[in-house]
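Incident log, support desk, overnight shift.

02:14 A customer reports that sequence design results differ from what the structure should imply. Their input is reproduced verbatim below. On-call engineer (initials T.W.) acknowledged and began investigating.
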C-alpha cells in the first residue's frame, strides 16, 4: 500500500514538472527499472558537434617537445568536412613488394610478408587460388608456380601475373589426382626456383543439391579424389621436397566451413565429408611433420562469391545463405588473401594444425 501511494505521489509530481526537471528527478528510478530507455534517450539528446579538435603532440620533431614540453593546439572543424577520399588504385593492379620498401619495414611487418619465398599454388588459375597467388606476389614472393588442371585459364593467369608484377611465374598443367605428374612438376620447381617454402592447396570442386540416397558412387569417389586425395598428394610431394632440402615450410590447405558444419538447405554430403577429411589430414600432417619444421594449417571459407557458386540454380539458395550469415554477404574473392599470406609467412611460426574459419560469421548460429 505504502509503495503504491509513493508511486502515485511521484507520478503527480512528475506531471507538474517542466521536461528537463523530469529527466533529472526521474533519472534514478528510471535507471533502476528501465536502463535501456534512459541511455537511448540520452543518446538522442547528446548529439556531439564540436567546432574544433584539441590535439596534444608528443613527438621529438614537434616544436617545444625536445625541451620537455608537448605541443598543444586545436584543429578547426569545417562544417560538413569529410575524410579525404582514398587514393584510387587501378582495380586489377598487383604491386609486388619492393626490396627497398621491405628493408624499411618494422620487424613485425617484415615477418608478415613472404619475402623471398618460393610458392606453389594449386587451383591458381581462377577464383580464390588466383587471388591468393596475387596476394603472395604483392607480399614479396620470389617466384610463383601455379598448378591447375585448366590449361587455358592457368596459362592465361600465369602470363597475366608475370606481366603485372615482373615476377617469375610458371604454370604447370597438373591434375591434383595425378601423383606422378605432381612429383615431376614439383621437381621442376625445385630445379628452376629452388625448394618451395610454401604450398597453398586451393584446387577443389563442389557438388551440391544431391541427396545421399541417390548419390552416384562414381561421382562421390571423384570428388573425394580431387578434394582429399589431391590435398594429400600435393602435400606429400611438397613436404618431401622440403624435407630433402632440410628447409622449413608452410602448407596451407583450403578446406571449408563445410568440414565443420553441415550446409543448409542444400544436400552435399560428399563435399562436406571431403572437407572434414582435409581438416583432419591437415592436423595429422601438422603433428607428423612438426619435427621437420613443416607447418600445416587449414583455411575454411564460408560461402564465397566465386565462379564455383555462380550457378543460376543456386540463386535462390544464395539468399538463404546470406540471411544466415551475420555479415549478410558472401565472401569476396580476395577475402582469404590476408589469412593466406599470414599462414604462409613466418609471423604464424607457432601455428600448426589450426583450422581457421573465415565465413562472415556463418558458423556462429
Ligand atoms: N567458393 C566457395 O564458396 C568456397 C567455400 C569454401 C571452400 N571453397 C574451396 O576453395 C577452393 C577454391 O574454390 P573456388 O571457389 O576458387 O573454385 P574455382 O572453381 O573458382 O577454382 C578452383 C580451381 O581449381 C582447379 N581444379 C579443379 N579440379 C582440379 C584438379 N583435379 N586438379 C587441378 N586443378 C583443379 C580449377 O581448374 C580451378 O582453377 C576449393 O577447394 C573449394 O572447395 C570454396
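02:41 Re-run completed on a clean worker. Output:
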Amino acid at each position: 500500500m505504502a509503495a503504491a501511494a509513493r508511486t502515485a505521489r511521484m507520478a503527480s509530481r512528475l506531471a507538474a514538472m517542466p521536461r528537463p526537471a523530469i529527466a533529472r528527478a526521474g533519472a534514478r528510478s528510471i535507471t533502476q527499472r528501465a536502463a535501456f530507455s534512459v541511455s537511448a534517450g540520452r543518446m538522442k539528446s547528446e548529439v556531439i558537434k564540436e567546432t574544433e579538435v584539441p590535439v596534444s603532440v608528443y613527438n621529438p620533431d614537434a616544436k617545444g617537445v625536445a625541451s620537455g614540453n608537448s605541443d598543444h593546439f586545436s584543429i578547426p572543424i569545417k562544417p560538413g568536412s569529410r575524410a579525404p577520399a582514398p587514393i584510387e588504385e587501378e582495380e586489377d593492379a598487383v604491386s609486388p613488394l619492393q626490396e627497398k620498401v621491405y628493408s624499411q619495414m618494422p620487424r613485425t611487418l617484415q615477418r608478415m610478408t613472404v619475402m623471398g619465398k618460393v610458392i606453389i599454388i594449386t587451383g591458381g588459375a581462377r577464383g580464390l587460388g588466383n587471388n591468393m597467388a596475387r596476394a603472395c606476389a604483392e607480399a614479396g614472393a620470389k617466384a610463383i608456380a601455379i598448378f591447375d588442371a585448366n590449361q587455358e585459364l592457368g596459362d592465361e593467369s600465369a602470363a597475366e601475373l608475370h606481366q603485372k608484377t615482373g615476377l617469375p611465374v610458371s604454370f604447370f598443367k597438373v591434375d591434383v589426382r595425378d601423383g606422378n605428374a605432381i612429383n615431376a612438376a614439383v621437381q621442376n620447381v625445385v630445379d628452376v626456383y629452388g625448394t618451395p617454402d610454401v604450398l597453398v592447396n586451393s584446387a577443389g570442386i563442389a557438388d551440391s543439391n544431391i541427396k545421399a540416397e541417390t548419390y552416384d558412387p562414381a561421382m562421390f569417389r571423384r570428388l573425394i579424389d580431387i578434394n582429399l586425395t589431391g590435398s594429400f598428394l600435393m602435400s606429400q610431394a611438397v613436404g618431401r621436397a622440403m624435407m630433402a632440402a632440410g628447409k622449413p615450410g608452410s602448407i596451407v590447405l583450403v578446406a571449408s566451413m563445410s568440414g565443420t558444419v553441415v550446409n543448409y538447405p542444400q544436400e552435399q554430403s560428399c563435399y562436406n565429408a571431403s572437407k572434414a577429411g582435409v581438416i583432419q589430414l591437415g592436423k595429422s600432417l601438422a603433428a607428423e611433420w612438426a619435427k621437420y619444421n613443416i607447418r600445416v594449417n587449414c583455411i575454411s571459407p564460408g560461402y564465397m562469391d566465386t565462379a564455383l557458386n555462380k550457378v543460376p540454380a543456386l540463386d535462390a539458395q544464395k539468399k538463404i545463405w546470406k540471411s544466415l550469415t551475420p555479415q549478410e554477404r558472401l565472401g569476396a574473392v580476395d577475402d582469404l588473401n590476408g589469412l593466406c599470406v599470414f599462414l604462409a609467412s613466418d609471423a604464424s611460426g607457432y601455428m600448426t594444425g589450426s583450422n581457421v574459419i573465415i565465413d562472415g560469421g556463418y558458423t556462429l548460429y
